[in-house]
Amino acid sequence: QELAADLAYPGDDVVDYIGLDVYDFRYEGSAQERWDNFYLKAPFGLQWHRDFAARHGKSMSYPEWGVGNFGDNPFFVQQMHHWFVQNEDRIAYAAYFDVDGSWPTQIDNNQFPRSQKLFRKLFGR
Fold first, then answer.
1. Mean pLDDT over all residues of the chain?
2. Residue 70 carries which DSSP code?
3. Does residue 124 sit in helix, strand or coil?
4. What local confidence, expressed as pLDDT, does residue 3 receive?
5. Average pLDDT, integer, range 43-59
6. 35 and 79 in contact (C-beta within 8 Å)?
7. pTM beyond 0.85, yes or no
8. Rounded alpha-carbon distances, angstroms, from residue 15 to 12, 51, 74
9. C-alpha to C-alpha distance for 26 and 42, rounded to whole angstroms
10. Is 110's pLDDT higher than 70?
11. What distance in Å separates the CA atoms of residue 111 and residue 46, rounded to the nearest whole number?
12. Alpha carbons 124 and 93: distance in angstroms, whole number
């Protein structure tokens, strides 16, 4: 039996940041519908994460995020960037999971060329 994420929280005295991994998985619907239903408004999604961290007086973190097995999806990259900008004063750090592993998330090897181009534009310095 899975416990709700908030029930598994160990306590403010032992937590520095409240983290969430976010990947663009293979779900039904348009890119906008997937964003709204599976990332932004989902149970234990981005909005829940923001509100939960605020209730506990903690900064958010995104130790892993990235396009994933859905494929090349620059809309997801754009939405994550927007989320980071919108909440930047409450985010300690975010790290794109640029790894060629079991899940196809690597973005610097041209497997997701549109996402790679937008990522560089939005996150480049």
1. 93
2. T
3. coil
4. 61
5. 96
6. yes
7. yes
8. 5, 16, 33
9. 15
10. yes
11. 26
12. 16
